[in-house]
Task: structure prediction
Amino acid sequence: MNFHQRENGDMEVSEIDPLLAFLMVEGIRQEEEEWDCIAESFLATPLAEDALFSQDWKEYVQPGLLTLFKSCHAHVITDLENMKREQLHGSQDRLATLLIPAAHREAWLRILNVARLSLAARHRLHDQEISGEVVPDLNTERGKALLQLQLFSMIQQVLVEVEMQ
Amino acid sequence: MSILFSSYFKLQSIAYSLQPSSKTELLENPALSEERLLASSWQVIVHNDPVNLMSYVTMVFQKIFGFKKEIAEKHMMEVHTQGRSIVWVGPREEAEFYVERLHGFLLLATLEQV
Result:
């Protein structure tokens, strides 16, 4: 997998292994089913002891945040749908190329975070697994989730570096 | 809707014209920070979670508060090692705005009265 930043700021991720391309799409699509859970877990009221404030936060702020995430998710899904798959010379697999437009970078950063938090919560991944100290066993759902988490971390890390240039 | 939230929405309409660096500068200067603490009553606290990348947290602090990289990293390390960091102190409405922005990047942030 290669990362290349174009002059206009777009990021091209090329030679993506078919398995990784599949896991990327699957991991990001899965979030759609979990928006409510995400709202409950990660967008909780910042002042739990104030009941009125918490009610207002849930009623007025959380929906706005969910709309933001859904909009970011739509951008990311569009980019994934535009992912090209081609057979490169000397390779038996159809490797994928993903283009992340500069205008979608922040959406990707947010959604990769949503995906990582969801995976960690759903599979109850522990700290050592999250920090990449464990080699994923791809014969298990947990191992697959771990590989997805590591893949998303790597892409997010590159995007953060580009964003802060 | 509470009075608080009326102000909140007014604040939202002007939120993007705020200059966060003028506020965040206070945490870079202990003397000013002390003055600020006396004059205001709410703090924004970011809590640790094992999932967010350190570089991501640093980036979010820079984006939201306009911190210089070293200051953003100092707060990120505080979150990482001590479990929490006070990243902003000031009036409640603005504190709410910053918490909302932090939640927008899925950082665990809460409000506390000083």
Q: What stands out?
A: Strands of chain B lie at 42-47, 84-90, 109-113. The longest helix of chain B spans residues 69-82.
